[in-house]
Amino acid sequence: MTNASSPQALFQQAVALHQKGRLSEALEAYDRVITAAPRFASAFANRGVALRRLGRLDEALASYDRALALDPASPDAHANRGNVLQDLGRFEEALSSQEAACRLRPGDATFENNLGNALQSLGRPEEALAHFDAAIAARPDYATAHFNRGITLASLARTDEALASYEQAIILRPDYAEAHGNLGTLLVSLRRFDEGLASLRTAVTLKPGDAGALNKLGVALMAAGQVETALTTFEAALICDPASAEARTNRGLCLLTLGRYSEAWADYEQRWDMVTFADRSMGANAPALMARVELGLSQADIAGRRVLVLDEQGVGDVIMFSSMLPDLTAVAAEVGLVCAPRLRRLLTAGFPNVTVLTPAAAAQQAAHYDRVLPIGSLGRLFRNSRADFPGRAYLRAPDAIREAWLDRLGPSPARLRVGLSWRGGTPNTGQGERSIALSDLRPLFDLPDCEFVSLQYGDVREEVAAANAGLTRPIRLFPAHEIDDFEDLAGLVQALDVVVTVQTALAHVAGSVGAPTLVMARRQGATFISLPWYASVTIIRQDDDRTWAPVIAEVATRLKGFSPRD
After folding, report:
1. Contact 337, 355 (CB under 8 A)
2. Which domain covers residue 314, as residue numbers?
C-alpha cells in the first residue's frame, strides 16, 4: 500500500489535478513532489507540461531541462522540450530535441509530426513533408499530421495535394476548425470564393468567439470584394480580441477602401504589432532604427523636430507614401529618408529638402534625429480626408534622361507608344493573381495604332521573343539593367504616351510622374493605388466573373481614345 505522503502518492495526486485541468493546483502539487524527491524526473517533465499550458514557456523549458538532466533517455521529455522551443521560435534547438525524440522512439507518429513542424519552421518543406508522411504511415487516422502536411504542400504550391490533405483532416475530425479555415483560405486563393467562404464560415461556427478564425474570414471576404461584410467581420474579431493587431490592421485596409481615412489610418498603425508584417516590411532598416520607431505621433510631436523616415513594404509603396514628404518638410525642421538604392536618385531629385540616406548611413546618423517613424505613418498625419489628397504629379526624372530615351525610341511612328508591364509582385505577394500571361494580351498587340514598349522588371527576353514571333509590330525591349534604377524607369515612362500595367511598382512610378496609366486589377485589389493618390491613374477591375479577358478588352477600347503626344 502506497503511503499517502510518499513522493509517488503525491505525484499521483498532481497527475489527477492535471488531468482535471486544474493546472495551478497541479503545479503546486508537482512542486511538493520535487521537494520530497528532488530527483523525480517525471515530476519535472509533467511540471513542464503544466507550465507550457499556462503560457510560462521559459519556466517550462527549465523544467524539461531538469527532467532530461535526470533522465536523458526520456523521448517524451525531448519531444515536449522541442515543442516549447518551437513556441519560443528557437527552431534549430527545437529540431535537435525532436530528432532526439525520434531516435529514442523510432516510428512514433507524434514525434514524426513534431519533427516535421520544426523542419517546416526552418524553411525546409521537402524534408518536413517526409516526416508528415511518416507520421501518417504510422497512424493513418492522425488528423493533425494530415493538416500539417496540407500546410507544407500549400507552401510548396502543390495546391491540389494540399486541398486533399486538408479535406482528409476534416474527414477524420469533422470539427477541426483550423483545417476548415486553412481549406477555406486556400480555396479563396484559387478564386473558388463560394466554397472557400463556406469553409471559413464553418471554422467560425466551430470556434465561436475566435478572433483568428474571424480575421481569416474577413480577409477572404475582402478578396471576394465584399468589403462592407469584411468590415463587420473584423469588428466582430476585435470584440473577441481587442488587442488583435491583424484584425485592427485589416479593418484599417477596409476603411481605406471605403474612403474613411481618419479611422483607417488609426487602425493601420497597428500593422507594426504584427510579427509577420514587421519581419517582411522592415527591409534593410537596422534593428537599432526600428527600435526607435514611434507610432501614433501628432503633427505637434514633429513640429520643428528633425525627423527620420524609414521605408517599409515594397518600393511602390515608398513611392506612393513619399508624396507626403512635402507635407512633412513644411512642419519638421529637417527630414531624412531611408530607401532602397534604386529609389535614391529619383527621390533625391524629387525632394531637394529631404536628405536621402542608405540604411547604413541612417544608422550612423540616427542620434542626429529627434523622431523616427515609418513612411506609411505619414498618412495618419496628412491624409485624413479626400480633400487632403492633391492628386498631382510630384516626381520627375531629369529632362536629360527623358530626352535620351526619346532618342533611343527614335522618331515617332505616329502611333501611340504604350509602356507595358504584365507581371507583378512576388510568390509571397500574390504574383499569380496580379499577373497576366503575355500571350493573353494579344488583343492589345493587334491594335493598329499602338507600339508597345516593355517596362517589365527582370529578364523577360524569352517571353517577349515568344510573343513577338507572331506580331507584325514587335514589342520593344531594352536591357533589364537599363530600367532597374527608378529614375531611368521614370524617364522612359515620361517618354511614352500611356502606360498599361498590372498592379506593380510601375503603377506608382507612372502615377507619381503624372503619366496616363491604365492599371489592370483583380476584382478586389490595388487598395492603395485605387485611393486618390494619382490623378492620372485609372483602375480597370475584373468583373464578377473574375477573369482578365473583359479587362483587356476595356483597356483596348480606352487605348483608342488616347492620341500620341508631340
Report:
1. yes
2. 282-388
What are 280-288's contacts with CB under 8 Å, separation 24+? 280/313, 280/428, 281/312, 281/313, 282/310, 282/312, 283/311, 283/312, 283/340, 283/359, 284/340, 284/359, 285/310, 285/311, 285/338, 285/359, 285/362, 286/359, 286/360, 286/362, 286/363, 288/363, 288/366
* Predicted TM-score of the model (pTM): 0.83
- Give the residue from 229, 245, 279 where a domain finishes: 279
Q: What is the mean pLDDT of residues 460-465?
A: 93
Q: Closest Cα to residue 282, out of 313, 318, 251, 260?
A: 313
CA–CA gap between residue 67 and residue 85 (Å, rounded):
15
pLDDT at 428 over 60: no
Q: Model confidence at 285, in pLDDT bands (50, 70, 90)?
A: low
In 4-47, which ranges are E strands? none
What is the length of the chain? 566
User: Does residue 159 contact residue 143 with C-beta atoms inside 8 Å?
Assistant: no
Q: How far is C-alpha 364 from the geometric centre of its chain's CA atoms?
A: 29
Claim to verify: residue 26 and residue 175 sit in the same structural domain: yes
84 and 68 Cβ atoms separated by less than 8 Å:
no
pLDDT of 279 > 70? The answer is no
Per-residue cell: 509? 512610378
Residue 444: half-sphere exposure toward Cβ, Cα within 13 Å: 35
- In terms of phi and psi (left: phi > 0; alpha: psi -120 to 50; beta: otherwise), the region of 414 is left
Domain check: are 206 and 62 in the same one?
Answer: yes
Q: pLDDT confidence of 532, banded at 50, 70, 90?
A: confident
AA identity, residue 193: F
Same domain? 510 vs 539: yes
Based on the domain organization, do 323 and 453 belong to the same domain? no
Using alpha carbons, select from 521, 499, 520, 502 the residue that is nearest to residue 510.
499
Cα 295 from Cα 301, distance rounded (Å)? 11
Q: Tell me the C-alpha distance between 175 and 98, whole Å.
A: 28
Instruction: Please give the Cα distance from 353 to 336 (Å, whole number).
Output: 9
Parallel, antiparallel or unpaired: strands 498-502 and 517-521: parallel
Does the residue 59 lie in any domain? yes
Question: Angle CA(489)–CA(491)–CA(495) in degrees, nearest 5?
Answer: 115
Whole-angstrom distance, CA of residue 405 vs CA of residue 493:
9
Is the same domain home to 83 and 182?
Answer: yes
How many beta carbons lie within 10 A of that of residue 329, not counting itself?
Answer: 16
* 249 within some domain: yes
What pLDDT sits at residue 524? Answer: 63
Residue 412: phi, psi to the nearest 5? -65, 130
Q: Does 393 map to a domain?
A: no
pLDDT at 528 over 60: yes
Percentages helix, strand, coil for the chain (3-state, rounded to 5) are: 60, 10, 30
- pLDDT of amino acid 9: 87
CA distance 142 to 24: 30
CA-closest candidate to residue 318, choices 263, 266, 359, 273: 359
Residue 186 scores a pLDDT above 90 = yes
Domain ends where: 279, 295, 312?
A: 279
